[in-house]
Design a protein that fits this description.
- The protein is of the alpha/beta class.
- It has 2 domains: 199 residues, Medium-chain alcohol dehydrogenases, catalytic domain (Quinone Oxidoreductase, Chain A, domain 1); 139 residues, NAD(P)-binding Rossmann-like Domain (Rossmann fold, 3-Layer(aba) Sandwich).
- It is built from 12 helices and 17 strands.
- A hairpin with a 2-residue loop joins strand 6 and strand 7.
- The longest helix is centred in the middle third of the chain and has 13 residues.
- It starts with a strand and ends with a strand.
- Bound molecules: nicotinamide-adenine-dinucleotide, ligand AHE and zinc ion.
- The site of ligand AHE has 12 residues, from loops.
- Belongs to the zinc-containing alcohol dehydrogenase family. Class-III subfamily.
- GO terms for molecular function: alcohol dehydrogenase (NAD+) activity; S-(hydroxymethyl)glutathione dehydrogenase (NAD+) activity; S-(hydroxymethyl)glutathione dehydrogenase (NADP+) activity; zinc ion binding.
- InterPro entries: ADH-like_C, ADH-like_N, ADH_3, ADH_Zn_CS, GroES-like_sf, NAD(P)-bd_dom_sf.
- This is S-(hydroxymethyl)glutathione dehydrogenase.
Length: 369
C-alpha cells in the first residue's frame, strides 16, 4: 500500500513529505495507523547527523499513538481496532534481559532495530523501488507503519491520541527516570538540568513522589515559568550565577542533591549533575543523549566518595507493561500532559517542529495526520 510520510533522505536536510510504499505485516507483526506523533529532541539529534546509529534515508519519529489496522499471522496480544503506542523499547518477556527483571532493555530485536530493519532483516518501507529505513523500530512520521507485536503497547480507548502519544517517549522517560530508575523517596532534594520536553516530566515525576526541593537548571530564562507549573521550587540560570555553578547548587541544596538528572544531552552538564550530588549517597541519572564521539568524565574521587552515576532509557519503563499505566496516570489526573503540547501541526508542516525546538519556543510539538 501507499502511505504519506516525512522522509529524512539525508542528514541536516529538511524532511520531505512523499508517498512511500509500505508492505503489510508479516508473522508476529502489526500495521498501525498513526494518528499523532510528538517530535522529540532525539529525532532532531538524528536528523542533525549526531547519532552514531543514524541511517538515511529513513522515516524518523518514535513518539506516536494510533490504531491497529491489520495483524499478521500469529499475533495474539493486539487486535484490529486496538489503540496502541509504538515502543522503541519493546518487551518480549522471553529474552535474558526481560527475564532478569533488572532492566527494561529487551534485546529480542535490538540488533536489527539499530540497523533500521525489521526482525527479518528487511525494510517494509520503500520509495521508487529503493529501501527506506525504519527508525528506532517505530517510524511514526508515517501515516501507517509496521512493528513487531512485542513493540506495541495497548492503551485505553478514551485517551486522546494527541496527548497520549507523548507517553511513547517524553512523559514515560521523564516520570519513569524518577519512579523506576532513581526511585526517588518522599522528602528528597533533586536537581533537574534541562527543562524541555523531558526535564519538565522529570519535574512532575518528582512532585508526584513528594520530593522536597525540586531545583531546575536551564539557560533559557523562559523555562522558569514552565518549571514552576510542574512542581519546580527553585530555578537556577547558569548565566546568572557568579562563580562556579556546581558550588552554587551544592550550597543551595545543603551539601548536594540526593538525586540529579541530566536532560540536556550535554556531556559538560552531565559532569556538573554528578558533582552536584551529595557526598556519600547522591545519585545522578543521565537521560540526555550525547553526540557521537562525546564522552563523560569526572574525578574518580567523586565516585569513591559515594556519588553514583546511572543512566536511563525510556525511563526504565517495561514497554508493554508500564506504558499503559503511564497513560492511566494521565487520564486519572496524576500527571499532566496537555499544557506541554505547545504546538500541533499537520504532517506537511513537520519541519516547523524542528525549528520551534531549536529556537527554544516549543515544549512539545505534536504532528497529526
Ligand atoms: P528539549 O530541546 O526540549 O530540551 C532541552 C532543554 O535543555 C532546553 O530547555 C534547553 O534550554 C536546555 N539546555 C540546553 N543546554 C543546556 C545547558 N548547558 N544547561 C542547562 N540547560 C540546557 O529536549 P528534550 O526533548 O527534553 O530532550 C532532552 C534530552 O533527552 C535530549 O538529549 C534527548 O535526546 C534525550 N532523551 C533521552 C531519552 C532516553 O530514553 N534516555 C528519551 C528522550 C529524550
Ligand atoms: N543511537 C544512539 C543512542 C540513542 C539513545 O540513547 N536512545 C535512547 C532513547 S532516546 C529517546 O528519545 C535509548 O533508548 N537507548 C537505548 C537503546 O538501546 O537504544 C547511539 O549513541 O548510538
Ligand atoms: Zn524521544
Amino acid at each position: 500500500m501507499k502511505t504519506r510520510a516525512a522522509v529524512a533522505f539525508e542528514a541536516k536536510k529538511p524532511l520531505e513529505i512523499v508517498e512511500v510504499d509500505l508492505e503489510g505485516p508479516k508473522a508476529g507483526e502489526v500495521m498501525i495507523e498513526i494518528k499523532a506523533t510528538g517530535v522529540c529532541h532525539t529525532d532532531a539529534y538524528t536528523l542533525d547527523g549526531l547519532d552514531s546509529e543514524g541511517i538515511f534515508p529513513s522515516i524518523l519519529g518514535h513518539e506516536g499513538a494510533g490504531v491497529v489496522v491489520e495483524v499478521g499471522p500469529g499475533v495474539t496480544s493486539v487486535s484490529v481496532g486496538d489503540h496502541v503506542i509504538p515502543l522503541y523499547t519493546p518487551e518480549c518477556r522471553q529474552c535474558k534481559s526481560c527475564l532478569s527483571g533488572k532492566t527494561n532493555l529487551c534485546t529480542a530485536i535490538r540488533a536489527t532495530q539499530g540497523k533500521g530493519l525489521m526482525p527479518d532483516g528487511a525494510t517494509r518501507f520503500s520509495y521508487k523501488g529503493q529501501p527506506i529505513y525504519h527508525y528506532m523500530g517505530c517510524s511514526t512520521f508515517s501515516n501507517y507503519t509496521v512493528l513487531p507485536e512485542i513493540a506495541v503497547a495497548k492503551i485505553r480507548r478514551d485517551a486522546p491520541f494527541k496527548t497520549a502519544c507523548y507517553c511513547g517517549c517524553g512523559v514515560t522517560t521523564g516520570v519513569g527516570a524518577v519512579t523506576n530508575t532513581a526511585k526517588v523517596e518522599p522528602g528528597a532534594n533533586a536537581i533537574v538540568f534541562g527543562l524541555g520536553g523531558i526535564g519538565l516530566n522529570v519535574l512532575q515525576g518528582l512532585k508526584m513522589v513528594g520530593a522536597n526541593m525540586i531545583v531546575g537548571v536551564d539557560l533559557n530564562p523562559a523555562r522558569e515559568e514552565w518549571g514552576r507549573k510542574f512542581g519546580m521550587t527553585h530555578f537556577v540560570n547558569p548565566n546568572d550565577v557568579q562563580g562556579d555553578l556546581v558550588q552554587h547548587l551544592v550550597a543551595l541544596t545543603d551539601g548536594g542533591a540526593d538525586y540529579t538528572f541530566d536532560a540536556t544531552g550535554n556531556t559538560g552538564v552531565m559532569r556538573q549533575a554528578l558533582e552536584a550530588c551529595h557526598r556519600g549517597w547522591g545519585e545522578s541519572i543521565i537521560i540526555g543523549v550525547a553526540e557521537a564521539g562525546k564522552e563523560i568524565s569526572t574525578r574518580p574521587f567523586q565516585l569513591v566518595t559515594g556519588r553514583v552515576w546511572k543512566g536511563t532509557a525510556f525511563g526504565g519503563a517495561r514497554g508493554r507493561t508500564d506504558t499503559p499505566k503511564i497513560v492511566d496516570w494521565y487520564m486519572d489526573g496524576k500527571i499532566q500532559i496537555d499544557p506541554m503540547i505547545t504546538h500541533v501541526l499537520p504532517l506537511e508542516e513537520i519541519n516547523k517542529a524542528f525549528d520551534l525546538m531549536h529556537a527554544g519556543e516549543s515544549i512539545r510539538t505534536v504532528v497529526t495526520f
